[in-house]
Structures are given as C-alpha cells and as structure tokens.
Predict the structure.
Amino acid sequence: MKKVVKYVAFDILRNKIVIAYMVFLFLFSMGLFIIEEVPEKSLLSLLTLNLILIPLISIMFSTIYIYNSSEFIELLAAQPIQRKSLWLSFFIGLASALSLAFFIGCGIPVLLFSANSVGIIMIITGWILSVIFVSVSMFISVYIKDKTKGIGVSLLTWLYFTLLFDGVVLFVLFQLLEYPLEKLIIGLSVMNPIDLVRIISLLNMDVSALMGATSAIFKQSFAGNMGSLFSFGVLILWMILPLYLSVRKFDKKDL
Amino acid sequence: MGRVFTFKISLFLFFPFWILNGYATTIVVSPVNQQKVISNAFQQLKDGDTLIVKSGVYQEGAILLNKGLTIIGEGLPVIDGENKYENLLVEHDNVRIKGVVFKNSGSSSFTDIAALKIKNSKNIVVENCRFENNFFGIHTINSSNVSYLNNELISGMTKGKPSSNGIHCWKSKHLTLKNNTIKGHRDGIYFEFVTQSLIENNHSVGNKRYGLHFMFSHDNLYKKNEFRSNGAGVAVMYSKRVHMVNNLFAENWGNAAYGVLLKEIDDSKIENNVFHENTIAILSDGANRIQIFNNQFLKNGWALKVQASCSDVELNQNNFIGNTFDLATNGNLVMKSMDRNYWDKYEGYDLNKDGIGDVPYRPITFYSLIIERNPGTLMLFRSFFVKLMDKAESVFPSLTPENLKDTAPVMKKIKHLTNDSVFSNK
C-alpha cells in the first residue's frame, strides 16, 4: 500500500498541471499580499479564489487521473493487494499530492504575511476542501464507467456546489420567507462544504459581526468551541462519506 | 495679582463671619468644622453667597437648594444619596456648582430620582463634577441657560441597581453641554423638548441603550462629540433643524444598533462626521430635507439605509470605504441629489482626467436588495453566485432602481475636514 501511495503521489507531483496549479496559487497569493497593504483584505480575495479554484482543480484532476490510470488500477488489482487498500492508496496519493500543492502554493504566502488564527483557519479549510473534492471525485469515477461521462459529471458537480446550489438556496429561502428559517439555513449550509467553509472563514474574519441576527445564528452553530467541533465534524464527514461509499462500490466492482 | 487673590481667599477661610450684610458671604462646610451640614449652611446663606465644601462624605438625605448660591467643592467632597435619596435638588436661578462628587442616588420605577436635579431655573453652571453610580445623573426640568461643563458621569457598576439617563433634559432651552464624559448609563444624553442648545466635545461611551437620544428637540448643534460602543448607538427622532458636525460614531454593533437612527427628522445637516464600524451607520426613516455632506463612512455593515419614506435627501461628497453595503433601501427611493461621493467599490474610468468618473456608480447591488427583503440570505454572503448576480445586475440593471446613482463619482478619496482630536480619543 505504501508503495502505491508513494508512486501515485510522486507521479502526480511531477504532473505539469499540478505544478502549474501550485505556481499559479503561489504567484496569485503572493501578489495579493504584496499589492494590498491590509492582509485581511487579501485574505478575503484569496478566500474567494480558493473557494472556486480548489474544488475545481481537485475534482477535475482526480477524476481525470483515475480514468487515465484505469489500466494501471486493473493491473494492480490483479496483484495480491486488497482492493480496499488499493483504492485507499490512490485516494491518499491524490489527496496528499494536491494538499501539498495547495500548501506550497497558498499556505506559505499566508503564513508569511498573515500567520494568525484567520490565516491558519484559511489553510486548514483549504486543505479540507482539497481532500473533500478528491473524495467526491473518487465517488463519481467509481460509479461511472465511461470516462467522458464521468468528467462531465464531475464538472457538473463542481458547478452545482459553487453556483447552482446557492441559486437553489436563494429560491428556497424566498419561497419560505414567511417561516422561521434559522434551522433551515443551518441545514442548508451543512449540505454544501463550499458554503460551510466560506461561512466558517467569514465568521473568523470578523466581518460577520456586522451582520445582525442571522450572523448570530451562524456564530452559535459554527463558531466557539461546540460550534467549531460541529462544523469541522461535518467537514470531516464530507471527506469520509463519499470515500466510504466509493470503497464499498470498488470492492465489488467488475473492473 | 495672584498673591492678593490667595490672600483674599485665606481671609475668607479664616474669618468668614467678618463680612457684613450686603456683601457676599462665604461659608465653609467641612466634616472637621463646626459647620458640618450642607443643608444648614444653605439656610444661613442668601442669594449671591458662596459655599465652600471641604473634602469629606456628606450624607444628608435629599438636599434642597432654593437660593442662588455658588457651591465650590475643594478636594472633591462627596454628596452621598445612600442609594435612597435624590442628592441635590436645585430650584433657583443663578446657581453654580463646581468640583463636587455626587454618589449613590436612589433609584425608583415611579419617580425620576437624580443625583442632581435642576428644576424651573435659569443661569445654572455645573462644572468639573463627578457623578458616580447614580440612577439619573443630571436631570433638567423646564430650565434655561444651563451649562454642564467638564463633568464625568459613570454608572452601572453595581449589579442589580438600575441606571437611567446620564444627562437628561426635558423642556429646556439654551443648554450648553461641553466636555462631559458619560459611561454606563441607560441613555448617555437624553433630550426631550430641548431647543437651541449646543452639545460639544462630549464622550458618550458604553451606555446601555443610546449614546444620544432626543425627541422634539429643534435647532440644536452637535459638534465634535464621540458616541462609541453604545448598546443601540444614537437615535434621534421627531426633530427639526438638527445640525451634526464633526462627530464620531463608532463601534455600535448589534442587530438594532445604528450609528445614527434618523426618525422623522426634518431640515437637518449631517456634516464632516466619521462613522466607523457600525452595523448601520445611518438609518433614515421618514426624514425630509436632510443634507449628508462630507462624512466618512468606514467599515460599516451598511453605510446608509434610506427608507423610501424619506424625501429630498442630499448625499454629496462623502467617502465610502470598506463598507459591506454602501446603500440599501426598501422601495422606490428618490434622492434629491447624490453627487461627487467617493466609493471604493467604483470600477469606472476617467478618460478626460477631471477627477470625476465617466460612468455613474450604482451603490445599490442585487445582493443588498435581496438581503434587505430576506435576512436569511446572509448565508450567501460573498459567495460566487452573489458576485455573479451583482455583476450581471450592474451591467443590466433590472431589479435595482434605475435613478439611484451617483452620476459624478470622484476617483480619489475626498479630503476630510474632520477634527483630528475626535479620532485621537481612541
């Protein structure tokens, strides 16, 4: 298992797209911090970028990588390796390589310019987002056999989480305007890891203190000791659940 | 000159009864003197006389002053209300009180018990006094030409003891409030039916409800004051010709906290003020003919919320920097003018280099409209979706009001005429 992880991770880190992703993140975040005098503002811009870019790269790259190595997976499956550990080592290889790319590209500038609790939350949530979307892509690629279809579905999934879901939220919130919405809002935020990460980051960036009753509800649910425990628990669930389902499927899959 | 003066004072101190009738008398009250009781001294004095109160604690229940005296505290004497009484009630013209500490007034749900109450009087000066742990600090009823200078009012330290307004004025005119500091009261400064008054360089900080609260108070000038961290900010209602200049409104955070709440305010000017980190810097409801000119709106949640019930609002030459929303409204708001403001969110260009942007700026965004109607949509704050919709809306406005725009936004920050001392008070 170790060998497979090592092989996958190094294979990915040599990949041009991942290197480009890392270099782009690094230049962009350095640029943001250098241009803007107030690090908090750069963090806000960086947050917006991360929320779009990290899921996109993680999900698309992992899906394509797994489809491309389908023959390699078949080969390895013929070896005396448990299917579970084969699949998990692919996950660990992908997740660690992309996390490393994120950490070098975005984490180092953040630590250089804004090494406070906000910056650290930003790095942790960015890392969590990388892993979540690798896990989601594993789920997609194990269920869909056709490569083109699989890539299309992952693209749609990314679009759903970054854009469509928020549109649906807006629609639902206006349909149910007459009802108490507190619990619904919390429920909806938990349904989308990108929204949840955004809310956690904004709560820590203190701009939220300005925003009245709804922010108080968010604070109650997602900040503070119990809140952080809850929100990070949900995020970890988002990492584990798709992976667990994909492992179960892969175990019985006819390759 | 100074030596002669001190000589005279010492004469007064040592031989107080030498002065004959017809001259101003001076009595010294002190815990170690023969004369220990302030209210007894009041009976011996007549209009125009002076009472010197030496350092010590005086517990005499409710004291009534109905003569035009000058009371001078030496070494901060304390008039203690023992949490039961109204410390001092003044019911006469021409009274001057200086350097006295008023402490522990009674509190009541039925009557307005104040540490110092001024009733039906003219020409009163209260200066350099301290008010500690009182229900009402200074209560003014039906008086005129009253000055409160350099006083400090602190309340709300005792748990369970209610505190009411710091400086409370009712049906009075020609008041002067200068250099007072009010902390921990319910409302810092409260005016009802107070006209033609000057409120300058006061610091109303950390009060439980409003820093400044007035109703039916016309023609007043508020200058260089600081209103910071009050429970609900500042609320002003039902008044005409209010003039607010060079004030600082800061850190009024909370669901119903405002830098300034303008409710039914007419013909007023808000100039050169700084609004810093308020949930809503200015909320204007039913206000007419308001000029908002050359203010700084920094890092507020909403810089301005102008309800459609307002008319003829002029919004010119202000700086909007770092606010989450610059302007929000709830309907078809029509402004009289909105020109030459600096908006940090403005993305236009200036081809002819005259310092004025060539395309108008629309301060109302798609999201500010949405969140106004449905606060739950805060969940989408700063999301990609909202940014996309804001952009689409700014290119093709359909939901946002067509005529609400700054036709001549300036490209550079406007130099601000604020008094720097207001800011240095942090």
